[in-house]
UniProtKB/TrEMBL annotation:
Catalytic activity: (6S)-5-formyl-5,6,7,8-tetrahydrofolate + ATP = (6R)-5,10-methenyltetrahydrofolate + ADP + phosphate
Keyword Cytoplasm: no
Name of the featured protein: 5-formyltetrahydrofolate cyclo-ligase
Enzyme kind, highest EC tier: ligase
Cofactor(s) annotated in UniProt: Mg(2+)
UniProt-listed Enzyme Commission number(s): 6.3.3.2
UniProt lineage: Bacteria, Pseudomonadati, Pseudomonadota, Alphaproteobacteria, Hyphomicrobiales
A single GO molecular function term of this UniProt record: 5-formyltetrahydrofolate cyclo-ligase activity
Source organism: Rhizobium mongolense
The family this protein is said to belong to: Belongs to the 5-formyltetrahydrofolate cyclo-ligase family.
Record InterPro entries: FTHF_cligase, FTHF_cligase-like_sf, NagB/RpiA_transferase-like
Entry keyword set: ATP-binding, Ligase, Magnesium, Metal-binding, Nucleotide-binding
UniProt cross-references to Pfam families, sorted A to Z: 5-FTHF_cyc-lig (PF01812)
Amino acid sequence: MQQTISKEQKAQMRAERLALRDAIPPETRIEKSLAMAEHAGEAVAFDPGTIISGFMPIRSEADIRPLMARFEARGARLCVPAILDRQTIVFRELLRSAPLVATGFGTAGPGQEATVLDPEIMLVPLSAFDDRGHRIGYGAGHYDRAIGRLRQKGMHPKLIGIAFDCQEVAHVPDEPHDISLDAILTESGLRFFASWIG
């Protein structure tokens, strides 16, 4: 019963927060997205060659391409998700010269010829978050499974949630198996839930 309530609560929070995000005018979203690049472009610590996964914006998501460009300029290898099936996403290397193709769920990214990479830092889209670093995704569970597969390989990717301030909620109902974020990036700044970033 508790799990059903939790699932219904999450669905309601997801719908409410995505409606608020959808209501942000496109030009304001651009300004907020550029603010994110300013807040995190230099503040996220990583060595050159670090593999960082981002994403191409869909619907009303923040456009983190300016942030990804900052990371690339600092030596990051970039990748973005491609949906293989209902259960699986992989992360394909994003190169400036490579053409982009439809990669599922309304997203675009490199085609099947691109190198598949295992990200060490992941920029994670989400629908809602709280001040403990708990998140609600879009409901398909793609990122949770992808992170689970990386952990099975012995990797522990650092997770930075990407959202607008309006997507914060007081409390995300969480369960023991839920994966929490290391940080959240909004237009107001980069908030840490773990010490590795700063």
